[in-house]
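[Q] Does anyone have a clean structure-token version of this?
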Amino acid sequence: MSIAIGPYIIDQPVILAPMAGVTDRPFRQLCRELGAGLVVSEMVTSDTRLWNSRKSRLRLDHAGETAPISVQIAGGDPEMMAEAARENVRRGAQIIDINMGCPAKKVCKKAAGSALLRDEKLVADILEAVVQSVSVPVTLKIRTGWCPDSRNGVAVARMAEDIGISALAVHGRTRACGYHGQAEFDTIAEIVREVKIPVFANGDITSAERAREVLDYTGAAAVMIGRAAQGRPWIFREIAHYLATGERLPEPSLDEVREILLAHLGELHRFYGELMGVRIARKHVGWYLKTLAGSESFRKTFFQLDSAEAQHASVHEWFERRITRGAQAA
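[A] Here you go.
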């Protein structure tokens, strides 16, 4: 079933969550190609004075991306958030996403991210300022509350809908929980019952079957996938296929994983340049290799490589050896 966010129709109920240091442009484009209905950029600070750093410039680069381009902003000052929203729209954003879900201490210390959930008046001021400042749809990402004794996600969701938020993503933990324990979906189910806007369920959804269970339990319009996509970007097509047919897709072959990884590696090197690209590629390749048994020693070797050419060649050779061994064993 398709989902409307303003004028945009999302045709797959599986969405890539914004993750700082992960969902850069190469990764977003890859996830779209592999079945994500919508991808959301890495969080950008609302302080436009800091946008001249190389890191911010790269986060603000959406060249060649498939519409709709959704950009997440974070901050605790309504006027600065409104200005950041306007400036992102001027640079091509088609959806503005507000971060009130990040539990990181660095973000929360600045009264941004999920720290805002303690102050519902400030939440309302920020939402109103951003919604009124742009003509594009505004979405919101929250947690279920500040702490287990203060799960105010339902109240915030109602307020967000009243103010004009177009869709809401909810992570099934509180700010105090960080990423510990298990995500709970009762609060998300209650939010779905209370609002008419699309709700996206997020937290601990690591398989197609789990996605089906969460959607059935909560009634949410879509699932939002975060950490489970690291090293497994094909999870989006697996979930989309399972939700549509009830059938599990086979795991990608080693040959396909190699092709996906090499293409991703090349895009990282092109996007960041060799020096920075080589460094950033290490963590992405590390995530892929973690999903493959017997890759520990190669992972250590790969992390020592310091050129794009060496990285590309070593990945190609390692997979070639694995594929050849598999063919001989068969």
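[Q] Thanks! Anything notable?
[A] DSSP finds 13 helices and eleven strands in the chain.
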